[in-house]
Amino acid sequence: MSQWSQVQQLEIKFLEQVDQFYDDNFPMEIRHLLAQWIESQDWEAAANNEAMAMILLQNLIIQVDDQLDRVSQEKNLLLIHNLKRVRKLLQGKYHGNPMHIAVIISNCLREERRILAAASMPVQGPLEKSLQNSVVSERQRNVEHKVSAIKNSAQMTDQDVKYLEDLQEEFDFRYKTIQSLEQNDKNSTLIKQEMLALQSMLNSLDYKRKEVLSKIGRVIHEIDMLMSNMLTEELLDWKRRQQIACIGGPLHGGLDQLQNCFTLLAESLFQVRRQLEKLDELLTRLTYDGDPIPVQRPQLLEKVNFLLYNLFRNSFVVERQPCMPTHPQRPMVLKTLIQFTVKLRLLIKLPELNYQIRVKATIDNNRRFVLCGTHVKAMNMDESANGSLSVEFRHLQPKEMKTSAGSKGNEGPHMVTEELHSISFETQVCLYGLTINLETSSLPVVMISNVSQLPNAWASIIWYNLSTNDPQNLSFFNNPPAATLSQLLEVLSWQFSSYVGRGLNSEQLNMLAEKLMGQQVSYNDYQLSWAKFCKEHLPGKSFTFWVWLEAILDLIKKHILPLWIDGYVMGFVSKEKERILLKDKTPGTFLLRFSESNLGGITFTWVDQLENGDVTFHSVEPYNKGRLAALPFADILRDYKVIMADNVPENPLKYLYPDIPKDKAFGKHYSCQPNEVSKPSDGGGKGYVPSVFIPVSKILNDSTEPHSPSDLLPMSPSVYAVLREHLSPTAIETAVSCKLSPS
């Protein structure tokens, strides 16, 4: 079943989450119509390879054209219209930046996998629950409503200022008319009446000036309150969601909504500023005793400028955190002399600023590292598909400086991966007479000089962003706080859902909790130390918990990914628990679990029944990446043979726990169907008999554990058939167990 088919079967609350990240940048119609083709492409790799991204974009347009031809024949007018619109979008928005559509599709597929994983969990994790708080959603709606109301109030005040200007022009005209009359005419009764009318107009002008200033003051107050409270909270929430998304959590949205709010507020403030300038212009033409403009206008203008400064400073954000294209799912880990990308956005989108803001990137000022490459670029609205005012640095490289002694720093691996740095950005905005200096920084990054440091560096990034909201605590690991175990387990599940397409269920998380704590615990409120997670070796082992888990992630990604995504690898289950699960099952029932003693190893255990009715269990020596590189794991399960004393070789694996026939579970993952057994004379091309690798173990009478499948012995089906015809089971056992002498 395709991933999209699984998505469509979700409950409505999960479908609503899916709906949130499909928009005009990547319409859901295309995801639906091209589901299988989209899922068969490597969008993750294309997101970091421009040539590959261009090819995929061209192929995507071809696929859309094919769909357009099909629906044209069906005369589906609505779908024809939508597909034409999508085709125009793909050609117009992404032709100059094909990697952007690859990033969008890759993120959408990843988020689908995360939601599918979340849907399979019995309960929502504490972190994800907090991010989807209904109070937060209500506040978002309130912010948008208030911003819209403020915009309307500013526009209404514009009409009041225009009315005030018209009123003053009428007063000015009538006043100058009276002033132009002769002295005798001024003493007439008619003129005296006109003077009284002018006094009344002046009173009205005074009232209207006070009213306009009062309305401007209310608009400024509303903006101030909104910025100080709800908008600030919204921005902080978005930054927190970004932190969580960086370590595998739900994709963070809402930046476009924030941009809309920031832009409308900036437009309203500039509108109020123009209104105050107009009042100053009216003041130069007419003033009087008790005039409110010279008293109130300077204070209001100072407040408007102050709010504009703060609004611009808060609007300068890191939209996409630093990330090496070679490791897209490990952001904020940067290797020296390897390029990384980072994207910034100004949430105030004004056409006057397009290509007018130049951003400079630097690294923190400890002088240990410098940035090489293009580190000054102009923000523009052309590179982003949504037209935001942004800039993306794609060719920055961190370089480690030599020490005064002439050699590079030589800190140990723990010291390197716990040392935090930040990438800083600065620019200047000059607009309508205002000059505003802007600064922002990335979340803390970890510098490494060797890829072997990547696992521990990523552990540091996880721990930091899980444990603190502080975006710039570079001394965090001087005294790292403990983390709540329930939240940590949720983040560990995210590592699996984001990296290998399927998260962990409650049983698997329970096993990890026991492994971390050394006993069965209630982990809801338990606090786990950084040392326990990443620095202290597991009891009786030569590696840490995190190194063990990272090796499993690597094993899944490279060797058993389809089996993991299908949910056929139980994986995290202890030896004791697996025997409890298997003891009452049909003989030949087996399960797959990760080795607890070997890094990156997977084994299988099956249940058997002795002649006296006793239950026995057999576990094969774990397969590591070396063996799995030689033979796919699904083929190993299909072809695995055991030689029992006085018995012929047979495959003991019948049912995947709990009761799934083996071939039903793994059949689609076999590299090829096993050949019919043939005699040597039936050989293949050039007179040779086709050969296959067959994993074989033997179990002695006094052993319940099969020997190591040393195992992958080259044996064709036809040779195996001949052996069975001409040799006794004992002879076969002796031949298989003998070591091969070098030729």
From TrEMBL:
Keywords on record: Acetylation, Activator, ADP-ribosylation, Coiled coil, Cytoplasm, DNA-binding, Isopeptide bond, Methylation, Nucleus, Phosphoprotein, SH2 domain, Transcription, Transcription regulation, Ubl conjugation
Superkingdom classification of source: Eukaryota
Keyword Aminoacyl-tRNA synthetase in annotation: no
Major location (coarse): cytoplasm
Location of the protein in the cell: Cytoplasm; Nucleus
Keyword RNA-binding found: no
GO biological process, alphabetically ordered: cell surface receptor signaling pathway via JAK-STAT; defense response to virus; negative regulation of developmental process; regulation of apoptotic process; type I interferon-mediated signaling pathway; type II interferon-mediated signaling pathway
GO cellular component annotations of the record: cytoplasm; nucleoplasm
An MF annotation (GO) of this entry: DNA-binding transcription factor activity, RNA polymerase II-specific
Residues in SH2 domain copies: 564-666
Matching Pfam families: SH2 (PF00017), STAT_alpha (PF01017), STAT_bind (PF02864), STAT_int (PF02865), STAT_linker (PF21354)
CDD domains with a match to the protein in the record: SH2_STAT4, STAT4_CCD, STAT4_DBD
Family: Belongs to the transcription factor STAT family.
Protein name stated in the entry: Signal transducer and activator of transcription
Record organism: Zosterops hypoxanthus
